[in-house]
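Re: the 272-residue chain
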Amino acid sequence: MSRYLAQRLLSAIPTLVGVSILTFLFIRLLPGDAIAARLGTSTALSPEQLASLRAYFGLDQPLHIQYWSWLASLFRGDAGYSIRTGRPVLVEIAERLPATLELAAAAALIAVSIGLPLGLLSAMRPRSRLDVAARVGGLIGLSLPSFWLGTLIVVLFSLYLRWLPNTGGYVDFVRDPLGNLKLLLLPAITLGLALAAATMRMTRSARRGGPPIPAMGREAEGRPQSERWRRTPRPSRARQWRPARARSSRAGQVGQRRSRRSCYARRIRGSR
């Protein structure tokens, strides 16, 4: 397990480097630069002043030197300053990280609570009404854009029903748990429904190709304990698990056919 985690972490390093390079290049392709974004259109500076500011921030250097300077500063713990607020970027991230983690945990909890049971029930009852409803719901959940679904949820629960607030600042859970949950519920549902649809489909696919599922309900009535296990095959394969009796009878039939063929072969040889 530790070796697998180490391999995954090492394989993530080239991905992070590639994403950082692409992001750096895309930002440089936009019109303007950090100085123009910071000053805005209301501040007028002379070309000499703009050139001195670009030289001070290192924006007059080639792109590869700019990227290397930023990467070296990042490894030293200096991520730079925000263009909008002027504060250190790491301080801005640290202030918003608790709310982000709380929202991600709530969305994952909703996704697992909805998607995992539906995926298991759908795998245990293939081609049933529950299976069809779960697959259609999963397809709809994956197809709906999150921003559109969030807008509908806000309109329904905030404007019409007036159950939950649609605006407001972040409230710490320790200070006001009820207010924190009220503000957290709408975005968590918006993100959790899409994750629930993906979780349901992955659980159903993995369970249908996994170990045998115990028969339940009417399907298990009147059957011996050894025959209460079945394997739900994938649609592309018709292989099914058979009880021990069926396997033994089939093996006996195959053995009888082989003995008949060998007997016919001996007769033919004797006639020759």
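The radius of gyration is 32 Å.
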